[in-house]
Design goal:
The radius of gyration is 18 Å and the shape is globular. It is α/β, with parallel strands linked by helices. Strand 5 and strand 6 form a beta hairpin. The protein contains 6 helices and 14 strands. The chain is 33% helix and 30% strand. It has a single domain, classed as Rossmann fold. The strands form 4 sheets. It has a 7-stranded mixed beta sheet, with helices on both faces. A 3-stranded parallel beta sheet has the order 8-10-12. Bound molecules: uracil. Uracil binds next to helix 6.
Amino acid sequence: MTEHLTHVKHPLVQHKLTLMRRKETSTAGFRQLLREISQLLAYEVTRNLPMTTERIETPMQMMDAPVLDGKKLVLVSILRAGNGLMDGILELIPSARVGFVGLYRDEETLQPVQYYFKVPQSLEDRMVIAVDPMLATGNSSVAAIDLLKKAGATNIRFLCLLAAPEGIARMKEAHPDVPIVTAAVDDCLNEQGYIVPGLGDAGDRMFGTK
Ligand code: URA
């Protein structure tokens, strides 16, 4: 992946995202749409996975057939909203290894505070895809990537649903080597650090909390 930012404009992604943004969309509907959209975004973020071939026999003849190469990739959910994106991707890539980074946002300073970190072994040999639906200020995304690099990851991608220009700029400055894949780039952040027009609090909407 050479681009720092990939905006996935596929009609199915855009349509599903619009349904997710609508404030009357139910918790169950939001969760289902997130699962569906995560698989379409996963298709994009894994586009350049290394491939090799394997000798197989079809009912007709032998052939050298393409298969994924290298160690299993790692999905890292940035808690808690990342879990909604991760569930769908795991259906598509069931052998992926899974890590969790727990960060909450201090509502006054908007700075991330770490409360959990657990990732698989040998991060340095694997593609690592960090997932969080909302790239807002970029503070927690940058902090999560800092932690993953400290744990040895060298090949990291960041997958989100919505990105604010402020978050994209912050990530580009701190981690220019980490490509971002997103379904939309919204207008800006409001004073509380929420993306506008956005979709509200992604965690609250997928878990039915407030
Ligand atoms: N986190 C969210 O869930 N929503 C936003 O708009 C920004 C951060």
